[in-house]
Amino acid sequence: MPWVLLAIAGLLEVVWAFSMKQSEGFTRLWPSVVTLAAMLASFGLLAAAMRSLPLGTAYAVWTGIGAVGAFAAGIAFMGESASAMRLLAAGLILSGIVLMKVATP
């Protein structure tokens, strides 16, 4: 169950990063509200997952999911570059997430 909570927390990190961009520096109400709500939920689920998972593993996986997810959202919805080097970098982050999962008892 902690891994499920951590995965959801990571996905919510993507939501708040994306909505923060949409808030235009917290000048738009609803994207700002979504940002804050997703942040609170993400932090709460991360904290719950950390009851069972090691700090380093939980935090690295959470930030990795957020980083790769925000990268993918930027490409899919904001027209950001999908160059080979950027895709390789995201792949390396993803492989680090998988290795953290495999290495954690």
TrEMBL record:
Its main location: membrane. It is found in: Cell membrane. GO terms for biological process: xenobiotic detoxification by transmembrane export across the plasma membrane. It is a multi-pass membrane protein. Keywords: Cell membrane, Membrane, Transmembrane, Transmembrane helix, Transport. Pfam families: Multi_Drug_Res. The keyword Transport applies. GO terms for molecular function: transmembrane transporter activity. The chain crosses the membrane at residues 27-47, 59-78, 84-103. One of its GO terms (cellular component) is plasma membrane. Belongs to the drug/metabolite transporter (DMT) superfamily. Small multidrug resistance (SMR) (TC 2.A.7.1) family. Gdx/SugE subfamily. This is Guanidinium exporter. It comes from Novosphingobium resinovorum. The lineage of its organism: Bacteria, Pseudomonadati, Pseudomonadota, Alphaproteobacteria, Sphingomonadales.
